[in-house]
Amino acid sequence: MTWALITDLHANRQALEAVLAHARQQGVERFALLGDFVGYGADPAWVVEQVQALQAQGAVAVQGNHDAAVAAGARPGMHADARAVVEWTRQQLGAPSLQWLAELPLRVREDAGLFTHANAYDPGGWDYVMGRSEAMRSLQAARNAQARVNVCGHMHEPMLYHLSGVGKAGDFRPQAGVRVPLPCHRQWLIIPGSCGQPRDGNPAACYAVWHPGDGVTEDGWIRFERVPYDVEAAADALRQTTLPGPLAERLARRLIAGE
């Protein structure tokens, strides 16, 4: 079974279209969609519909912090731009979509993986996996759930962590398009990077192709991918909305940075 691991879509239709097309060309059999389907981008309704359709076909989908915020509505004291994004996004989604966002699970255990948005140790607390310390906590929580692999999003840059049988942690910043073996005697934490909002200066959308192996006789592997897409079209779509202007310019700056 080969999975496409996609996270932090952030209502970016152009990025998701490119990633889904690329993943299908790779022959993936399952999709894991790791949250933050809304927020920042111009097409929340379209993205939610695509995720729901994939979920109906057997994809895993978990809740992200932006999904939870949009489902709950703007809170007192929220930053003005964040409030504007939440309120605008809610206006684009009907009540069934908002209920679907609210009812998404925080974690799903399938195959060899524990799928979460932020981390495995407190998925609703939205802590970031900033380094080995948080990675070890997440890996230990996945081990307690009898999962060899934890897959999470939230961090918008691709990263890979591992934990040996004697508790020694390591990390690896992957290169796009290079298959990395995942020996089954180690625990693994996969962070695919953001589909809709990459933040490493490369505007290409991130996702990963994962084969878990059987955990006994066959090791798994992971390949992180970068998929170019029409960033300027995504920025133009934002400019056609009443969302805060800096959101479009942030995408446009990434386009310049990646050229």
Number of strands: 12
Give the tally of structural domains: 1
CATH class: Alpha Beta
- Helix/strand-derived category reads alpha/beta
Summed up, the helix count is 8
| Largest sheet data | 6 strands, mixed
Strand content: 15-25%
Q: First CA to last CA: what distance?
A: 36 Å
Brief characterization of the structure:
The protein has 259 residues and is of the alpha/beta class. It is built from 8 helices and 12 strands. The protein has helices at 13-25, 44-56, 65-72, 80-92, 95-103, 132-144, 231-239, 245-258, and strands at residues 3-6, 30-33, 60-61, 107-110, 113-116, 149-151, 159-163, 169-172, 179-182, 187-191, 205-211, 220-227.
List keywords for this structure.
single chain; 259 residues; alpha/beta; Purple Acid Phosphatase, chain A, domain 2; 6-stranded mixed beta sheet; 8 helices; 36% helix; 21% strand
Describe the overall structure.
The longest helix has 14 residues, at 245-258. The strands form two sheets. Strands 3-2-1-11-12-9 form a six-stranded mixed β-sheet. The protein is built from eight helices and twelve strands. The mean pLDDT is 92. It has one domain: Purple Acid Phosphatase, chain A, domain 2, CATH 3.60.21.10. The protein is globular. It is α/β, with parallel strands linked by helices. The N and C termini lie far apart (36 Å). It comes from Roseateles paludis. This is Metallophosphoesterase family protein. It holds the Pfam family Metallophos_2.
Topology diagram in text:
Layout: E1 3-6, H1 13-25, E2 30-33, H2 44-56, E3 60-61, H3 65-72, H4 80-92, H5 95-103, E4 107-110, E5 113-116, H6 132-144, E6 149-151, E7 159-163, E8 169-172, E9 179-182, E10 187-191, E11 205-211, E12 220-227, H7 231-239, H8 245-258
Helix pairs in contact: 3-4, 3-5, 7-8
